[in-house]
Design brief:
2,3-Dihydroxybiphenyl 1,2-Dioxygenase, domain 1; 2 domains; four-stranded mixed sheet
Length: 126
């Protein structure tokens, strides 16, 4: 009945900054971008990374995220990387700080970065 996760939706504080981060650094591609005339939503941008999709919503007066480590709700987006060491070097060269890790977990490696709004992104090498 259910096939897969279609997309994850994020409301950034500045959609242009987020588009630049996700496309320019994390190699997402813009699939669709359109203005919307619905209540407080101004624009929707769909970003693709292989068979994964991220939806960015530009809204009027976005409110900052609460900075509580263990609050109920979605915790983070996770991206699989081919080579953790190369990914870390690449991100650091682009000015992206590694906020946690990398940690060798035996059959996998894990690290974390943050997007321009401080939303956590897990990096995982299997």
């Amino acid at each position: 009945m259910f096939k897969r996760i279609d997309h994850v939706e994020i409301i950034p504080s500045d959609i242009e900054v987020s588009i630049a981060f996700y496309t320019g650094i994390l190699e997402f591609k813009i699939k669709q971008r359109e203005e919307v005339d619905a209540s407080s939503i101004k624009e929707v941008v769909y970003l693709e990374l292989n068979d994964s999709m991220l939806e960015l919503l530009s809204v009027e007066e976005p409110q900052p995220v609460l900075k509580q480590d263990w609050q109920v709700g979605y915790r983070m987006l996770a991206l699989e990387v081919k080579d953790m060491d190369k990914a870390i070097t690449y991100l650091e060269d682009k000015g992206v700080e590694i906020s946690w890790g990398p940690v060798d977990l035996g059959p996998s490696k894990r690290a974390e970065i943050r997007d321009p709004d401080g939303l956590p992104i897990e990096l995982r090498q299997w």
